[in-house]
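Hi all, posting the design record for the shared folder.

TITLE: backbone redesign
STEP: 1 of 1
STRUCTURE INPUT:
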C-alpha cells in the first residue's frame, strides 16, 4: 500500500492537470448553461424532487451544479454550475458560471453523476464567492431541503437555513470517504461567455452586461418560478 500511494497521488495530479489544461470554447460554455437549465426543469417537473413554492419565495440566490465523480482510492468530483441572484428589483441576474469540485479520501470504487440545486436564502452567502471559493456546509450551513411532495409538513426550522440542498445521483459509488464540497468562481469562463472583462461580482449585482440570447431562457424560467 505504501508503494501504491505515491502512484495514486501522481495519477490524481495528472488527472487534475489534464482537466485544467484545455480552455472550453464559448459553445461549450453555452452548453453548460443549457445543461443547468435542463437540470432545473427536470427537478421541477417531478413532484418527488420539485422545490416547493414556499422555498422558492425565500430564495435570494440559486446555484445549479452538474458534477461527475469517478475514481479509485481518490475520488474527484469535477463539474460546473451557474449561480444567479435575485436583485432588489425582483429580477433575476445573469447566470454566472462557477466551478464545482469535491475531493474525497478513502477506499472507493465506481462512478456516479450528481445534479444539485442549492437554494440560498440570504444575501451574504453568494458573496462568499467574491473571495474565490467557499465550502458548502462549512462556510455556509446547508441542510437537505423539503420536497414539493412534503409541502404539507411544518418545514419552518428547515427554511431558516442559509442553504437548502436538492440533489439527484445516478450510478454506483461505494466506499468510506472524507468530503469537502467546494464552489469557486470561474472568471475566465465568464469572460468568454459574455465577451466582457467584468468578473463575478459585477455580473451578478450590476446591470452593466446585458444577457446574451443563449442565457435568456434560464433567466426567464427562473423568473417564472420565483418572481
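Okay, here is what came back for every position:
SEQUENCE:
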Amino acid at each position: 500500500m505504501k508503494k501504491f500511494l505515491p502512484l495514486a497521488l501522481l495519477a490524481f495530479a495528472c488527472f487534475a492537470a489534464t482537466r485544467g489544461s484545455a480552455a472550453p470554447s464559448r459553445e461549450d460554455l453555452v452548453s453548460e448553461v443549457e445543461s443547468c437549465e435542463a437540470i432545473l426543469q427536470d427537478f421541477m417537473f417531478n413532484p418527488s424532487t420539485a422545490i416547493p413554492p414556499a422555498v422558492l419565495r425565500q430564495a435570494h440566490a440559486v446555484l445549479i451544479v452538474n458534477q461527475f465523480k469517478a475514481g479509485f482510492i481518490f475520488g474527484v468530483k469535477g463539474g460546473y454550475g451557474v449561480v444567479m441572484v435575485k436583485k432588489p428589483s425582483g429580477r433575476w441576474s445573469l447566470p454566472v458560471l462557477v466551478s464545482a469540485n469535491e475531493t474525497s479520501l478513502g477506499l472507493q470504487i465506481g462512478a456516479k453523476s450528481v445534479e444539485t440545486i442549492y437554494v440560498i436564502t440570504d444575501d451574504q452567502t453568494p458573496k462568499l464567492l467574491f473571495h474565490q471559493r467557499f465550502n458548502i456546509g462549512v462556510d455556509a450551513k446547508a441542510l437537505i431541503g423539503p420536497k414539493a411532495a412534503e409541502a404539507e409538513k411544518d418545514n419552518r426550522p428547515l427554511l431558516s437555513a442559509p442553504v437548502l440542498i436538492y440533489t439527484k445521483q445516478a450510478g454506483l459509488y461505494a466506499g468510506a470517504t472524507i468530503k469537502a464540497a467546494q464552489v469557486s468562481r470561474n472568471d475566465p469562463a465568464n469572460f468568454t461567455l459574455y465577451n466582457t472583462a467584468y468578473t463575478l461580482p459585477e455580473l451578478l449585482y450590476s446591470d452593466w452586461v446585458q444577457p446574451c440570447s443563449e442565457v435568456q431562457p434560464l433567466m426567464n424560467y427562473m423568473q417564472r418560478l420565483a418572481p
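COMMENT: Strands lie at 61-72, 74-85, 96-105, 108-120, 133-135, 142-144, 163-175, 178-185.
Let me know if anyone wants the other runs.
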